[in-house]
Amino acid sequence: MTSIFDSLQQSLAFLNLDLFMLLSLIALLGGTVIFLVMAVNALVAVYFERKVSAFMQDRLGPMEVGILGFKGGKKFWGGIGQTLADAIKLLTKEDILPKSSDKFLMILAPFIIFSGAFLTFIGVPFAQNIVISDFNIGLFYIVAMSSIGVIGIILAGWSSNNKWSLYGAMRAAAQIISYEIPIGLSLLLVVIVSGSLHLGDIVQWQESNRWFIFHSPFTFLAFFIYFISIVAETNRTPFDIPEAESELVAGWMTEYSGFRWALFFLSEYANMLIVCIVASIVFLGGWLSPLHLINIFPESWYILDGPLLGLFWVSFKAVILIFIMMWFRWTFPRLRVDQLMYVCWKVFIPFALANLFFVSLWELIF
Amino acid sequence: MAENLFLFIAVLVIASAFWVVFSPNLIHSAVSLLFTLFGTAGLYVFLYADFIAATQIVIYVGGILVLIIFGVMLTSKIDSPSIASSSANQFIGGMGAFAIFVMQVAVIFNTPWNIGSEQSRDATVGTIGKLLLTDYLLPFEIISILLLAALMGAALLSRRN
After folding, report:
1. Is A53 among the domain residues?
2. pLDDT per position as a tens digit, B54-97
């Protein structure tokens, strides 16, 4: 019973189905769980983002919309109806396919991006043993599957037959491919130290030693390289030049509307959740309580760990990271293309490589 | 169950590979290649080679396919959705392709395939790593030198004169 897949297989054994039916049923159930997580995540994250932007920039709109006459006041609950209104608006909008676009690819592209996010979720644990399928190569699987989305972005930009879309897609592809390298290098550092690609083992290592971010100066640096790179990887400000509103309308999403645009939106917020969960599992101790930070306490102090509390800690850490990403978005101006490439190729990659070398030395010496 | 799934993936690979070759639109070929590469990763999973499957996706789908699409979009008129592929030298190309086909079939039938009931479900990552750093160290290093040379060549070509 190390994953949802295994436990479903055991608990459905009483139905006496043959293997084909059983696997289909499990795949259906697992897929529904992932889809629900993605949908709820998008709803909550959009509301969260609107509120954060409203508090940071004195925006009035997100404080007003009520639901069934419930206004919610001027603070936290104000604007609670906004996401619901957004969702209804997106699903009922007219579906536009430009006349001279490549219609087949334009319909296919959002589904490729969505599948990328969906497939990645299969390997992402939400707590100990709460993962759809527990891969031996979990971390590598997540990195591999999250590289599918970029193809969808390029196709979306090209098939729209619109110069803004194409520029946006080109920028997005260049950016995502470039920033995959520092992400891979900083995750590799954790793999070297813990000696496993399995996310459960990585957390196990942190349980018997300490959180990776505080393990050595180099892992500390690696966390920041990873975090800034995932902000770029998810195309968020200050790295949102692929969809820079002031120059490219909406980048590769310009020609999309309605349901297919909603799929982009869903995948974008799902990707945010995925990278933040990975960051919190790999660097911030995952489902361990903050008491495991440096592990100097006696055994009886660790009362904050457990299946449900583990779920809480993973989501808590991920939400904090998501909040920081939103904080970036509403306080930093956008980078230029050359600055973006400079940061990646001339700062992050050399530092990440040096980091990799020094952490190996550190592990040899200490 | 497993046989049906295997057949489905094999048909997907072959059909999409056909479309890569015969599609009149280069971008459609590239998209079709996505399904071919994905299906090949699925075939690796059938061989219990999980690490190779993930590597296949990271390198071919996330890297090489993106480069191919970039190349296609940048070489021809980039904003028209009908980048057409033409065919020339059909006879010579066909003979070459046929020769390669014969060679591959000969290789397939002359290789002593290890068909048995023994199954390996162990993790493959550690074994691959050990083999790469012991028995296959020299090929591994030669490949890395080749990649380094390609990297330097690309940097040299893209430099402004």
Report:
1. no
2. 888 888 888 888 888 877 777 655 545 455 556 677 888 889 99
Contact between B31 and A108 using a beta-carbon 8 Å cutoff: yes
Query: In chain B, which residues have their Cβ closer than 8 Å to the Cβ of A173?
Result: 66, 70
CA distance A64 to chain B (A): 43
Q: Is the ipTM of this complex over 0.90?
A: no
pLDDT tens digits, A317-366: 889 999 998 888 888 888 888 888 888 888 999 999 998 899 888 888 87
B37: containing domain: 1-77
Same domain for B7 and B68? yes
| Domain-located, residue B97 | no
Distance CA A287, CA A285 (A): 6
Cβ-based contacts of A150 with chain B (< 8 Å)? 62, 66
Q: Cα separation of A287 and A176, whole Å?
A: 29
∠ CA A176-A182-A117, nearest 5°, is: 45
B114 lies in a domain? Answer: no
CA distance B46 to B17: 19
